[in-house]
Amino acid sequence: MNAQDPTTQTVAVYLADAFTVTDGVAEGDGISFADELVMDDVYQLATRAQRHPITLAASDKAGIFTVAGHSKLGTPGNQAVLDCCVTLMGADGKTLEALVLVEVESGGVEAIYLLPLATLEPASDYRLVGLDRHAATTRFAEVACVSFTRGTHITLASGQQVRIEDLRVGDKVLTRDDGPQAIRWIGETTLRAVGDFAPVVITKGTLHNEHDLVVSPDHRLFVYQREDRLGAGRSEVLVKVRHLINGDTVYQQDGGFVDYFQLLFDEHQIIYAEGIAAESLMVDPRTRAALPADLGSDHSRRPHMDYEVQGTLFSQADAAALLRKASSS
After folding, report:
1. How confident is residue 168, by pLDDT bands cut at 50, 70 and 90?
2. Which of 31, 21, 49 is nearest to 86 (CA)?
3. For residues 221 and 241, what is the distance between their CA atoms, to the nearest angstrom?
4. Are strands 108-116 and 8-15 parallel, antiparallel or unpaired?
């Protein structure tokens, strides 16, 4: 099985020249780093622009990454820096945010990428109305934080099913590996349910769940395969829900706002949400910027972290249905 480093993050970005100034001081130039951006310049996304996946390995310093060896974009080993968070205003007056990522090689700029946190429409005007050099690490951390949505039933150590918004710090939750464990911290954020923040819905019964399970796109589920139908080479697998999207029983719910909740324990845990084994929040260099400063050190590596499988194994038409069969064979 091809396990992935849990401290890497794959995000979908536009190349800088796909988002260019059509009216303003820097007319004709693509999006750039903070020192070169000019307020009130108007940008447009190219008609046929496509997002490309880049895989980033976290470092000990917030906002600094390395392009991972298996990344499809960028040069492996190069440094990648979260330069700034920009605020763009559309023609309808609504604003959205995007992150500027700079790839550096030998001290010089090798490439610039744009990570939009909402959907950009091709050939539409977007005016640059805000720039924050410090918010980028926090926004990226919010993307990396695995979250459950309001209404999700969590299994307590007693077996009781409690909605996540009714949980309190100190409540003991049933974990797969360590039995009852007390909640150390509960996070809550309300975000626009668009782009990389749009939650994924796993409909009732898809993975033997009694109710719909709605979670953040990179949330990992633990599945025990009685028969290795996935071809992972082992029974236990961790799968990101984004790899299970089929547009039917598993789909991304884009639009409006979403209330996200994060559950933190002393160690990274596998807990039960709507009856599905799912991970809790992991503290690491990617997520720390979104958490209170007094939460202590990063989580240690646990055996189940090696169970994650790469997205290449999910090229089958309906991986969710396959995993349902595999777990009930």
Report:
1. very high
2. 31
3. 7
4. antiparallel
Both tokens of 72, joined, read 């499809």
Q: What is the mean pLDDT of residues 89-104?
A: 94
Mean pLDDT of 111-135: 93
Please give the residue that has the higher pLDDT: either 15 or 301.
15
CB atoms inside a 10 Å sphere around CB 152: 24
Rounded to whole angstroms, the Cα distance separating 298 from 311 reads 26
For the ranges 58-67, 152-161, 222-231, 290-299, which has the lowest average pLDDT? 222-231
Within a 10 A sphere around the Cβ of 61, how many other Cβ atoms?
A: 10
Count Cα neighbours of 304 within 13 Å in the Cβ-side half-sphere: 24
Token pair for 189: 């954020």
Closest-CA residue to 102 (of 113, 93, 94)? 113
pLDDT at 233: 66
d(CA 192, CA 198): 7
User: Measuring CA to CA, how many Å separate 52 from each of 33, 292, 311?
Assistant: 19, 32, 15
Query: Tokens 């999006």 map to which residue?
Result: 31
**Alpha-carbon distances, residue 125 vs 23, 272, 294 (angstroms):** 9, 44, 42
Structure tokens at 159: 């077996």
**329 pLDDT more than 90:** no
Residue with tokens 């059509």: 22
Q: Tokens 């429409």 sit at which residue?
A: 121
Question: Which residue, chain included where needed, has tokens 């046929």?
Answer: 48
From 113, 144, 147, 126, select the one nearest 288 (Cα to Cα).
144
In this structure, the number of other CB atoms found within 10 A of the CB of residue 167 comes to: 17
What average pLDDT does the segment 32-60 reach? 92
293: alpha, beta or left, given left = phi > 0 and alpha = psi -120 to 50? Answer: alpha
Please spell the DSSP secondary structure of 35-87, one letter per residue: GG--TT-EEEE-TT---EEEEEEE-SSTTEEEE-TT-SSS-TT-EEEEEEEEE
- The one-letter amino acid at 187: G
Backbone angles phi, psi at 323, to 5 degrees: -70, -30
